[in-house]
Recover the amino acids of this structure.
């Protein structure tokens, strides 16, 4: 079992390193792209910094720095919630939608390349396996 856990750990590290070094987005940091995707997917649902911290596994202080930088670049806006003044709602700046769309397309092309090389069957198996690993790491063991 010791060899297997070492192999899995090495593979995990190699995957993370490969993803980080092959910058999926050329015009902005990966975290910014992920945040924009989450905001885009949410459409009109209110998204808070707390929600983004949970999704990305970040500290609130780190998220605030990223959001401040994104706001300075006019990628997002932050507004107080009408329902609860303590909450700040983060929204995608629709004026910057072209930049997001361009970045998203680059990521899709990168993913399409992986799918083409793996094939549909292996891709679906990989998705299933990665989702199972995610579930286990979050403590939702089956």
């Amino acid at each position: 079992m010791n060899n297997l856990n070492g192999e899995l750990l090495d593979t995990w590290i190699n995957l993370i390193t490969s993803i980080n070094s092959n910058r999926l987005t050329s015009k902005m940091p990966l975290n910014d792209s992920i945040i924009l995707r989450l905001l885009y997917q949410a459409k009109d649902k209110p998204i808070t910094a707390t929600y983004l911290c949970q999704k990305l596994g970040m500290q609130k202080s780190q998220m605030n720095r990223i959001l401040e930088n994104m706001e300075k670049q006019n990628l997002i806006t932050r507004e107080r919630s009408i329902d609860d003044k303590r909450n700040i709602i983060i929204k995608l700046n629709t004026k910057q939608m072209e930049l997001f769309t361009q970045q998203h397309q680059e990521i899709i092309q990168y993913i399409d390349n992986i799918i083409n090389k793996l094939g549909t069957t292996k891709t679906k198996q990989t998705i299933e396996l990665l989702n199972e690993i995610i579930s286990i790491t979050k403590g939702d063991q089956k």
Summary: The longest helix spans residues 97-118. The chain has a mean pLDDT of 85.
